[in-house]
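Input sequence (532 aa), recorded before submission:
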Amino acid sequence: MSDSEQHGTSRRDLLKLIGTVAGSAAMYQAMTSLGVAAESPYSGPIKLEGDPKGASVLILGAGLAGLVAALELRKAGYKVQLLEYADRIGGRCWTLRGGDRYTELGGFEQQCAFDKGLYLNPGPWRIPYHHHAMLDYCKRFGVALEPFVQVNYNAYLHSHRAFAGKPQRLRHVLSDFNGHVAELLGKAVSQNKLDEMVTQEDKEILLAALRRWGALNRDYTYAASGFTSDRRGYERDPGGGLAGAPTVSQPVGLGDLLKSGLWRHLATGNIYEFHTTLFQPVGGMDMIAKALARELQGLVQLDAKVTSIKQDAQRVTVTYQNSKSGGDVGTASADWCICTIPLSILSQIDINVGSEMASAISAVPYDASCKIGLQFKRRFWEQDDAIYGGISYTDLPISLIGYPNTGYSDAGKAVLLGAYTFGPYAYELTALPPAERVKRAVGWGAEIHPQYEAEFENGIAVGWHRVPGVQGCYGLWSEETRKAHYKNLCQIDGRIASAGEHASYLPAWQEGAVLSALDTISRLHQRVVASR
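Predicted structure, token format:
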């Protein structure tokens, strides 16, 4: 008899409970079923075999999907041209530095005033270790990487409704939550209340595991001790000499932890996309786009606003005009077209595709997101609070504070991510003028770091649904829309094909954009070679 037959669903439910509290197995399984957590299938550089015999491809959008498509198609012998709406390459792979100017929808203009060497990544800011395509392109084109700290146990969890608004160290909340849950489950097991769920052998192993995992005493209680302080930290750390004896710290009660809601942030490090190790490009995320663009000099036309996309049996013709000045309409044509324009924009453009693809283009909304970068006179989070990299989370509208993962212990100024929020909070913030958004972020951040008010110098705020040429953060698929429209979006419609993060099962990730591009050009190349 198998385990599943012997113990039934109750055993599986118990293991799911332990997985939810102690690890990421249950969460990973759920995410995999939705198609957002599978390891990247990339296994190496794409090989486009066969001669395209001079075929031409027009690529719309010079984000990562467009750049990768252009690089690989040109290498395979295609004539390639790219049209890009913005005055820069990279799309959402974007970095703001001192002196940069940015004008959003509605006309608000901001000038980044960061000191030299400081920057904000308004879009992507991390690359997981299992995003193999992104890492390979960085390696192939010489983009230096450094670690990105997702989980810092000394960072803060904060609720303005709990603990009198005082932020709590993540290590305290994590250790105490695990300990209290382990105590509850340990007592249930030791009192034979789970006999129908586990065998006697499993029971003994489970008790030993719970005691070790939760730092429980011999009677399976979670209480102040050297064992618990080795997890959550000491009130007074061990030292040397006569005054070296440590003082153990006092755990927070389970009731207070549950009411605080801070436990909501504990699973972040267990999510597959956030597993250690993550990376960031040295000097800013746009180092990746710049490295790819260097290989495509002369092929990218910037400031080109696409106004229509037309195809017939032989060609695809695109009309466009200068995205800044308007003026005369230009045209570009090619045998084939790969469109990486975000669906939030493409749905507003005149394009003659079949009804199925047209419906797919109109079916996917885009999420709103806002990031705010703040420059401070000194690294008070390191100097005063011993937080080196990582993220603090809060229930305030800013959602989180991201600390710089480079330049540790520098004596000078630094920029941190003062807000990264989605949905209603993003709309709320970006309904305000940029200066007011920054002011609000400073005020809210001061509830976690009181040093904000005295140390703040300047900031910049980007709301993605107000970014021209994008009008949204990423394609927001649901299970229903993906089932109804995803395949239709990804199919080659006549001579037009789609690519981008929205045409992937890794929405909002650069890996999704790259894998989508590689899949699209592979299928397109097969069609081209077969037709020659």
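Checked by second reader. Residues 1-37 have pLDDT under 50 and may be disordered.
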